[in-house]
Amino acid sequence: MTRKLAVACMTILLLTLSSVQLSAETAAPSPGAKTIVLSIAGMSCEGCATGIRAMLKRTSGVISADVNYEKQTGTVVYDSRKTNEAGIVEVVSKMGYKVAILK
Ligand SMILES: [Cu+2]
Fold first, then answer.
1. Global confidence as pTM
2. Most buried residue among 15, 22, 69, 70 by CB atoms closer than 10 A?
């Protein structure tokens, strides 16, 4: 991994973490809850996974998000009344990663 890339990762990480406290935790089970599993290509370190996780968690309609750097996957539970698969994919795609829906 190049130094430049690492700096970019850290920048994304800091940007996402700095605003993550603003989002309210949605812990209660929701009747519209659905789970999507994504393949996320392009993560080069744990910081990428942390950054994506933070970004997803502050996305409207996302109930919980888990991103696995080793497996290059992400599992997102979302409220289908507030967002959809395309919305979730778009959030991660916009960060510069290649996303595919696994299930
Ligand atoms: Cu990274």
1. 0.76
2. 69
